Amino acid sequence: MKLLVIYIVHAICIPCFSFDVPGKDLPLTLDYYKSTCPTVFDVVKKEMECIVKEDPRNAAILIRLHFHDCFVQGCDGSVLLDETETFQGEKKASPNINSLKGYKIVDRIKNIIESECPGVVSCADLLTISARDATILVGGPYWDVPVGRKDSKTASYEFATSNIPTPEEGLISIISKFHNQGLSVEDMVALSGAHTIGKAQCRNFRSRIYGDFHVTSALNPVSETYLASLREICPASSGEGGSNVTAMDNVTPNLFDNSIYHTLMRGEGLLNSDQEMYTSMFGIQTRRIVSKYAEDQVAFFEQFSKSMVKMGNILNSESFVDGEVRRSCRFVNT
C-alpha cells in the first residue's frame, strides 16, 4: 500500500490510496469498462456530487447499502431487488426493513448510465463506485475501485437476516460475522468507522441509552447532557418515537473523519455494537485499534480504503456463471 497524492474536495485534503487487487484469479479489474463504457466513473461522480449536495446524509445511505449488499451472497446487487408475487427479496429482512434506504438514488444513477451505455454496467458495480464517491464527497479518502461484477438473479432473505450485524449485537458475534465474510478484526473496526457519518433510528439505540450508556461514559457531566438530549429524541417506551433519528457522530456528523473513535473512547457510542469495540471485556484488540484510529486519521483512512476494496471483492461465484447486467436494478431481466 502506498500514499499516492492528495486531492482537494470541498476544501478538504483527501488522501488517495491505491492497492493491488488481491488474487490473480479475481475477475475484477480497474479498466473493465475501458472500451465498453469509458465514461462510467465520471458519470457516477458527477451525479453523486449532486446527490450529496442535495442531502449529505445520502453519502452514509449509499455506503450502508453497499455494505448490506456485500454481506449477503457477495456484492451482487441482490439487496436492490424488489419483492414480487413469485420472488422474495432482501428488503423486508429485519436489518433492512424500515431502515435501509437509497434505492431511488441507485435508480437515478442507473437510468443515466443506461442512457449512455445500455446493458453494460452492472448495478453491483454502480453501487460499489457510488459508495466510494460518497465517501470522498464528505471528506473521506479516495481508493481505486475494481469493477466487473455481475448482478445476481437471486436474493437471500435468510442470509440478510442472519449475516448482517445488528446495532445491539455483542462484539464476539460481530467479529464472527465479519470473519465469515473473510474480513479481519481490523477490517471490522475500520469499516465501522463509516458511522462517523449518517444517523441511527431510536429503535436501534433505545436499549443503549436506557442501559449502560451512563456506565461507559463514566457519569461525565458533558456526557450526561448529551444523554439527556438523546432521551428527548428517543422515549423509553417502545411504542414511541421508534423512527426518530439522530447522528451517530454528534461532533462532526456530516464530515467523514475519525471523530467516531473519539466518541467511543469517551464511552458515548450511540450504538451498542460500536461501543463494544472499546468497552467490551473481550475487546483488547479492538480497543487498541480504536485508540490508534482516534490518534491517527491517516491510518484510519488508509485501512478504511483497503477494507472497502476487500469487502467489495466479496463475490457471488454463481453470478459469474449465470449472472447478468440488469436493465433495472429492481428486477431480474426478462
Automatic annotation (TrEMBL):
This is Peroxidase. The keyword Metal-binding applies. GO terms for molecular function: heme binding; lactoperoxidase activity; metal ion binding. Heme b binds at residue 195. One of its GO terms (cellular component) is extracellular region. InterPro entries: Haem_peroxidase (IPR002016), Haem_peroxidase_sf (IPR010255), Peroxidase_pln (IPR000823), Peroxidases_AS (IPR019794), Peroxidases_heam-ligand_BS (IPR019793), Secretory_peroxidase (IPR033905). Ca(2+) 2 binds at residues 196, 249, 252, 257.
